[in-house]
Amino acid sequence: MSDLADLYPTSAIHPPDLPEPRGPLSAAVAESLRSPAPGAHRSWPEVDGCDPFGEDLQLVLQLCYELHYRGFRGVDEAWEWEPELLGFRGRAERAFLDALRSGTAGGRDVEAALGELLVEPAQGTGVSHYLSDHGTWWQMREYLVHRSIYHLKEADPHAWVIPRLQGRAKASLVAVEYDEFGGGREERMHSRLYADLLRGAGLETGYLHYLDTVPAPSMATVNMMSLFGLHRGLRGALVGHFAAAEITTAPSARRMVRALRRMGASPACVRFYSEHIEADAVHEQVMRHDVLADLLAGAPELAGDVVFGMQASELLEDRLAEHLLSAWSRGRSSLRQSFL
C-alpha cells in the first residue's frame, strides 16, 4: 500500500498556517491563538455593529470552527474548548445567525420549500450557467479556488449531525455520508477527488491553502454548515441545508461538466463533477424520502428549522454568485489576491 505522503503533499496532511487577520475581531482571535496556551484573561472586542457577512466576522468564525476540524499549525489544541474563546465565538455566531434569519422568509412548509428547489428557471442566471455558456478558463480556476475551502473537507460538517438523529433518518443520512467519503475507498472520497481536480487545473491542493485568497462570501457558505452542525438545536437546519445541497448539485454539476469539457480541462477536473451527477441524484431521493420524512415524522416541530436551512443555503449561494458575477462582468478577479 502506498505511503500517505505518496498520495498527498505535506500541506494536505498537516494543519494549515493561521491566515492573516482582516480586522480587529479576527486579529484578536489570531493573536490569542498564537500564544503558547489558553488560560490568561483576554479583552475581546465588541461584535455589535460589525457586518455579519463581512470579512472580519466571517474570518473569526472560520478560525474558531477550524479548531474543531484540523486546527492550525503551531496552535495549542487546548484552544478548541477554551471558555473565553467559545464565549466570543458565541457572540459572533449570534450576529451571523440573526442575519441569516433576517435575510430569509421563514415558514414551516417543507414540501413547498422542496418544490422551489426542484424547479429550475428556464433561463438560469447562476454561476454554473455562466461558466457553461460564457466562462473563461481563468474564471473557472477562480471558482475552483472559492470552492476549495469546502470541498477539501467535503461532508465533514454534515457528520456532526449523525449522533443527533435517530432511526431511519440517521441510517439514511449515514448512507449518503458513506458515499461522500468514498464508500470505504480513500481514492474515491469526494475531498480526494477535489484535490485531484485542483491538481488537474494547475492549482495548489493543500487544505485551506487559499484561505487568505477567498473573500467572505465563500467563507460564509462553509461557516453556515459548521454553525448548523456544531449546535444540536440547529440539527433541523443542517438537514435542510444538506437536502438543498443534494437537490441542487446534480443539475449544476451537469453544467460544470459541459463547461470543463468546452474549456479542454483535464479528466480529473471533469471526474469530480461527473461523480456528483449520478451520486447526488440518488442522494436527493434519500434525503427527501428517508431522512427528512423520518426526521419530521418524529419531530414535526423541526419543520421551521428545516425550511430555514434550505433558505439560508440559497441566501448565501446567491450572495456568492452575485459577488462572482459582478466581479467577472467588470473583467476583475473575484478573489482577494489573484493567483494568476
Proportion of residues in β-strands: under 5%
Category from helices, strands and their pairing: mainly alpha
Between the first and last Cα atoms, what is the distance in angstroms? 37 Å
Helix and strand sequence: HHHHHHHHHHHHHHH
What does the average pLDDT come to? 93
Helix content: 55-70%
Q: Tally of extended strands?
A: 0
What does the overall shape look like? Answer: globular
Biggest sheet overview: none
Put simply, the count of helices is 15
Uncertain regions: pLDDT < 50 for 5+ in a row?
1-7
Radius of gyration: 20 Å
Write the layout of secondary structure elements.
Elements: H1 4-7, H2 10-13, H3 24-33, H4 55-66, H5 83-102, H6 110-118, H7 127-133, H8 137-151, H9 156-159, H10 167-180, H11 190-200, H12 216-230, H13 235-262, H14 267-298, H15 303-329
Helix pairs in contact: 3-4, 4-5, 4-12, 7-13, 8-11, 8-12, 10-14, 11-14, 12-15, 13-14, 13-15
Report on the structure:
By secondary structure, the protein is mostly helical. Helices cover 62% and strands 0% of the residues. It has 15 helices and no strands. Helix 11 packs antiparallel against helix 14 (267-298). It is globular. The model is unreliable at 1-7 (pLDDT under 50).
